[in-house]
Every structure is written in structure tokens, then in C-alpha cells.
Amino acid sequence: MNDPIQSHRLFDATVTFLGQLLDFRLERHALIASNIANADTPRYAAMDLEFEGALQKAIAREALPAPRRTHDTHLPGSIREQLSVAATPVRRKSHGVGNDVNSVDLDTEMTQLVENNLLYNATAQLLSKKLNGLRLAIEAGR
Hints:
The protein is mostly helical. The chain has one domain (8-67, 75-95, 104-140). Helix content is 56%, strand content 6%. It is built from 5 helices and 2 strands; from the N terminus they run H-H-E-H-H-E-H.
């Protein structure tokens, strides 16, 4: 049975959230790389992704009781919907660094890129360990 509504039950909320976090890190990497590429573009405003506020909202939503099925014909609530975290692109709050009013500071961007890369790798390792645990449980059941 390949029902997409039932398929999310294979993974717990942690795996779902870690997958979303990897997507965020990938999107942020592309945005920081774009900032670096536009370091010499006059009047370019450096962008970043606002994630912490969205994360706090998702955590607050998670604290709410899960939706209940009140009738057999109702679809079950989705874990993915409850844990949905979307980052919002925002302009970095900085004044122009050069005479061309470009707000890209290469030192800041490179630091952000390295930090984001480290967090991506850490998240990927966590996800790998969770999936490895699932694999071990499946193999033990044979």
C-alpha cells in the first residue's frame, strides 16, 4: 500500500523536522552564496533567512494537542503539517559597507557560510543516526 497520507508514519517527528532543517540549511547556503557573488554589485542589499521566529512558532504549535479524528471518514492529522517550519527571507540590517552602498561584508558572509555548513553537517549526521536506528530495527525484525 503506497498511500501518501500513511507514508509519514514510517518516520517520527524528529526525522521530519531534521529533513526540514536540512532544506533550510541548503536554502540559506544558496542565499549566502548569492550575497558573496554580489559583493561588488552597487546598492545590493545582503539577504538572510529568518528561522528562529518560525522555529518558536512551530514549537508552540507542537505544544498544542494533536488534532483528533471525530469521525471515521475524516483524514488523520499530519505530523508534517504540525511541524512545518518555513524560513522567511529578510534583508540584513547593516549599512552600506562601501561607497556604492552595498551591504555585503565578505567577512560576515564567509563566517555565516562556514557556520551554516557546520550546522548542515551536524544535522545530516543526526538524521543519518536516526535512519540507521530505523534500519537496525528493521533488520532485527527479520
